[in-house]
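Input chain follows. Return structure tokens only.
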Amino acid sequence: MIRRNKTPEIETDVILIGAGIMSATLGMLLKQLEPNLNIQIFERLDTAAAESSDAWNNAGTGHSAFCELNYTPEQPDGTVDTKKAVVIAEAFETSKQFWAYLIENNILSLPDSFIERIPHMSFVWGHDNVNFLRKRYEALTTCHLFKGMEYTEDPALLQDWIPLMMEGRNNSEPVAATRMDIGTDVNFGELTRCMFNHLKDQEGVTMHFAHEVRNLKKEESGKWRVKVKDLKTGEKRRIHARFVFIGAGGGSQYLLEKSDIPESKGFGGFPVSGQWLKCLNPEVIERHQAKVYGKASVGSPPMSVPHLDTRMINGKKELLFGPYAGFSTKFLKKGSFLDLPLSIKPTNLRPMLAAGIKNIGLTKYLVDQVMQSPEDRFAALQAYFPKAQPEDWKLEIAGQRVQVIKKDPKHGGVLEFGTEVVTASDGSLAALLGASPGASTAVSIMLDLLKRCFINKVDSVEWQTKLKQMIPSYGQSLGKDARLLEQVRSHTSQVLNL
């Protein structure tokens, strides 16, 4: 009789699934707070940050809600709701504090190009949109997080700010813009890879590329048994861990369902793909120096808010326009066309159907986007850059996003456009679902996860002391304390060379 080789068994404290910005951030936080932790990291691709965290796949704005109009919706009574914008602006300040701590304490050696200062602007045309932007400006500038925001309807000033967008424009149409000079561009792919390069050199941390997590199951001991396959050798192994984080982007939905925790029931995902027009003309690229966001079309998802976007990628200045939305049943850019159908279960079928019925406009929008001709895409660019020339632009495939669908007692199911952290009741497992603003708010998201999953540790003197060292504003509100915000911004700007 031939005896099969026994599957190797490994014991660890923490398993991180997915080598993106979320797992990298959580890994860095945990090793700073608890240096003796053993961490196993698994990524199905051959390199870190190859999906949503990659610079070409990610918006890379350094979301601060300075320019993203979808974070400040207009209410039925005509007022502008700024609550979400304030939360996101605070969260990005938290991220900058953590990055500054890592650099200042020589934990990471990050290139200057990972974060650059680039003005954030909102630009609109037409009477209704100009009125909205004016109200948005007035509402936001009552909060010190948006101190320094400028507003203008003066075409001459706009010609100075955004010459490409003003040349050839109809002078009879009203236009308006806001501008925040302290906006940033962040290469999250570069940041993520630097974090993992540091983590893999730490005692007790092991990184595994080309390893796919196939299953996970809760044991009677309270630990998780995770089954992993080496995609290059075919070897399988089991890892036992006290805590598991599923940060696999679009792949998180599948693994969350495999966990079978009660909290996972009713969650579904709706994939949205994207494309960019990339500028090839160096002279055009040099003439634009801003991230300029417009207003999304009715029914479009937030990730499709059009913007003419200055980016720094691998030390080189780039100019992108888009993204153009599309539809694919893949949950990852390098995923399977079966991802969406295989994600549909009896527990999430009703929420998914209800969300689909409620969002017919989104479905129509995606169909229209998929059916767009090259001429249609270029016409959208010319609405922002009237004198754009087709030969100066090339279509590039962007990343894949999976919007969260969850149960709703009133409507059966709702489509969420933000991020959602799902945790087991005992804190032994957490999964991150969703998309924007994601990467920019990674530190705040992971701090919230620590509170939910490491309850016995997070309130200890040791962890509280360390958290306040890493993030000076920890436990305080930057949206309520103007003096604290000024101190934090001054310090992080100096350390990050902004």
